[in-house]
Amino acid sequence: MSIESYDKAHKLALKQFRSDSSKGIYPYLQVLDEILSYTNTAAEIELGLTDIPLELIAGTKSAGRTNAFASNFMPLLPDHSEFAIKWSSLYDTHIREGIRDPVIVYEFMNRFYVAEGNKRVSILKYCDAVTVSAYVTRIIPQKNNSKEAKVYYEYLDFYKLTQVNYLYFTQPGSYKKLLRITGKAPEHIWIEEEKEDFHSAFYRFLEAFERRGGKKLSLSSGDAFLVYLDLYGYEDFLQKSFREIQKEVEKIWHLFLVFPNKPEIKLVMNSKELPDKKTLLGRILPQNVLPLKIAFIHCKTKTTSTWTYGHELGRAHIEKVFGQQIHVETYFGADSKEKAKECFEQAISHDCSIIFTTSPRLLPASLQYAAKYPKLKILNCSLNSNCGHLRTYYGRLYEAKFLIGVIAGIMAQTSHIGYIADYPIYGMIANINAFALGAQMVNPDAKIHLEWSTRQNFSPDSILNNTDISFVSGQDLIMPDKETKQFGLYQTGNSDPDHLAMAVWNWGSFYEKVIRSILNGTWKQKPQMDKDSSINYWWGMSSGMIDVLYSSRIPSGTRQLLNLLKKSICSEDFHPFAGTIFSQDGLVHKSDADSITPDQIITMDWLAENVIGSIPSIEELTKDAQSVVLLQGVTKTMKGTDTE
User: Fold this and answer.
1) pTM of the full predicted structure?
2) Of the residues 147, 418, 490, 577, which has the fewest C-beta atoms closer than 10 A?
3) Which tens digits make up the pLDDT trace of 438-449?
4) What domains appear along the chain, each with residue ranges and CATH number?
């Protein structure tokens, strides 16, 4: 039996050898000593006795036995050799009583290299064992700027907390992202129960992934597991059946195929792409069962959040427009995973076929339920989300901010203007820069003093008490039951601020357009599990979704200029970001004819040259703001996190 097994292992070795050779790949085991000969190392650490995954054993410590094995650790030497006899004898021992003696290995860059026990490793791999007991010495490379080194040093920090050595990632930031998805605090040391649960979860996923053909893909099993968890979450994983995991893996297989890329973002920037006239088929056949059941899920309430209040106005608008054609349910306070799940489950149990989630904080839950229920129409209010599982929507608020900046530049008594922003997320930096460019267009000396309301220990006094600043752009939305008088663009210096303009969100315009297209059967029946692109609705003033309210105090000539600019922006004859643009660090864009691209506008991580202030890091923000920024934060905010 042992000779027959050696013969089978030998054939596997020859097959691997020929395959590697035909592809120009080194056909033998990697040798750590050779790798280290051109690598600078920082330290060696004894990790002691531990179980290591056989999958991550890549070669030998020295070159002594390299040519005896193919790259898959199967034996290359002929079956009449002394090596074959020893291999066969050890195989018999393993079958009778198991291999008990630990091997000795060195770990380098999350791969293991055998110093003693090559035949034991070969036999265990042949028998499809998962782990082997080993005495491990870790060799740590010196830090450098390579992606591989960054990933490895992140792994070292992760290992200190978890002692997990069986999964690795290929992209920086993945270990931090994994901790966040599993709900663990960044410095939390895992207890034994947490380690056992995670080990069980990973290997259950791995079995489903490899049964589907995961070993043939270029991404690591860790990469695949993180892609899966990012969509389906970790909290309920151990309660899922293996069949359910298999189905979920199948649904997102296309994401594994394109990793590390994500589906292309298809920006729908014109509301006309959602036609509201019935098709011929729609006139003949009924498209929906009435009333159409719709759910709105909010993180906060309309009395605690101006953002939620604005969306509630949109909800009231569609109820007035569509009457008995629709039935709307509203859920507030979905500010945790548990509460978001509860709201989704209740909406689905009530047969809601359209679900609007009105905050980027609800994006993870929206993704999970869109993947779980692909027939649902789930739309999340966020920007730049390239998942391909649901649609997102947002507004080009920078167009309105540009006009308000023009007003400030004309009306301000000095060249100093204040601006209070909230979250440093996608789209927000464009709002600030558009305001600054609008002010600069009519007043070349205009300076914009920037503060962030979500920064820890924020106080508006630095702006409001600055005697050089006569006008401030504050929060855009107000609620009837709040006494704040500082909103929109207002003049400081008086007990009651004088308001000149305010950007407004007409969410009802968007919701009406979407619902009408669904009722009329003109909603594009493209599967939400779209493998090619992720649809982001990003509408501007031309759609009516964004607008500016003006005070009667604005002079007639200024209003004429504003109307002309608005008309030009809506007709796309003028763009706020056209022409030569300088940031605080120098030239950004040089073209008198063209503007920067929509993607560049969304992902801006620089401030215009006339802005005095900076983009805060995530550590400078409040805890509440950090949860939003982790999902949608711009690059400079996220330094040191998983978006680097």
Assistant:
1) 0.79
2) 147
3) 999 999 999 999
4) 1-142 (3.90.1530.10), 145-261 (no CATH), 397-505+543-632 (3.40.50.2300)
